[in-house]
Please model this.
Amino acid sequence: MSNKSIIIVLIGLFIASFSIKNEYIFIVPKNWPKPHYDFTKNILSENKIELGRKLFYDPILSRDNKISCASCHSQFTAFTHVDHALSHGIEDKIGTRNSPALMNLAWHKSFMWDGAINHLDMQALAPMSNPLEMDNKIGRVVASLQQTILYPKLYQIAFGDSIITGEHTLKAISQFMLTLISANSKYDSVMRKQIEFTVQEKNGFELFQKHCGSCHKQPLFTNLEFENDGLPVEKTLNDYGRMNITKDAKDSLLFKVPTLRNIEFSYPYMHDGRFKKLSEVMNHYASGIQQSKTLSKQLQKKIVLTSNEKADIIAFLLTLSDKEFLFNPKYGFRN
Amino acid sequence: MKLKILFALFVAIFCNGYLHAQSTDKILFHPTFGKSALHLDDSCYTKDSIYFSQLKLYISGVEFLNKDSIVWKEANSYHLLDASDEKSLYILVNSPSDLKFTKIKFNLGIDSITNVSGAMGGDLDPTKGMYWTWQSGYINLKLEGKSKLCKTRNNEFQFHLGGYQNADNALQTIILNVSENKNIDILIDIEKMLAAIDLSEQNQIMSPGKEAVLLSEKFSKIFSIQKQ
Model:
């Protein structure tokens, strides 16, 4: 081979390796439904995901440079706020809701406990602007990113443009969040027939399907709808959920059904973090349901559970923990 | 050899452009208060000593009609007009120069599909300050200022109008008759708007809902073609 052809081959390989590295293939886990997110409007690439990951972990998004998305959504707790019932933001201000765990967001149709946000791309605007959270403005965020040495380079690599825009910033953050897929728990291995449940877990799974499965629907463990699961109103917050958005009395006390994947790690529970333990959640469903006009019909008839049965359901819920997700370095902070 | 091909290509592209000559007419928007141009901040308008600090609005879906059929449609038609930025107040039109049309049609605001389609760039970029953050959706129009009539903090009034869902959809369609002309001059007369509302009663609308829809309808009526 002549020198010239070696160079051509090398250049070809270089280009090929670049495009292979940059391509990101979104894999839908087997037997899962089609994602809701429209990937054609925001084509995934390794470089954009990497930029999004950096932004997610960077406090530069907040007014005082101290709060990042990860402050309230940390990986080891399935991307929720560890130990805080209500989220904890800038200058130690306390928010009005518990931060939800983040995973499998590509399947979600709306975001927030009340569905206030209609698209994953627009989600990051809410905490950035909330005076109790990051207290900033997207315009200022973009200006401060532009002034760094690093970010214009990363935007150039990711989007082919070193001028930073709101659009590119939001799309990059979405890309990172879209890759947060949890589909490798013990439950998933059982479904793939690789291992088996214990007798207790199996019993819990059956009870779960009977009493809980219509709202916490497999395989996402949420039907992605708004439901009233019979929690009495917390008098200090007076949060009526979905009705805040639709102003329709039919939506009073309806909240977005949360996933139960990794529930072992995402305590405290519910939109206001009122329960610390799964046993408290079980007691709520068995004996704490508050009747009201909007109570979802599945819960209108009392669920009767013995204490053994409650323990069995909890044993099943623990099979939804996905260590690979919680400790995957791909999702973590890196410098 | 290569140069020749390049040259031929260049000529071809050039001729092509020339043959399909497009007129670059302008649609110009003129915010006014009655007969005078609208100024932000410094000027006070006599009636009830009114000051304006901000007027921004989205114009989208620009079309030309001949009688009732569409003869030209602007592609990707989203424009943020900002009364404080001269450059934002006109739209360059690249319709064919021999086009006959009698009406211009456009929307005041952003359509519902665009509202649910995620992050966008250009005039739709959320850094433009025309997107609600706590609840998704574009703000179609912002009008802010002060008036003695408003018994509010610093006598301020603020109208942020928007909303795209069902009954809360605040999008307005505006159709105006035009005489054939190179430029189309459109007046936006804020005085007419203030004549249609009572500032002492209504001075803060910051979220989607019935009020925002009603006020948007009133806003849609203050557009008119400037008589030559």
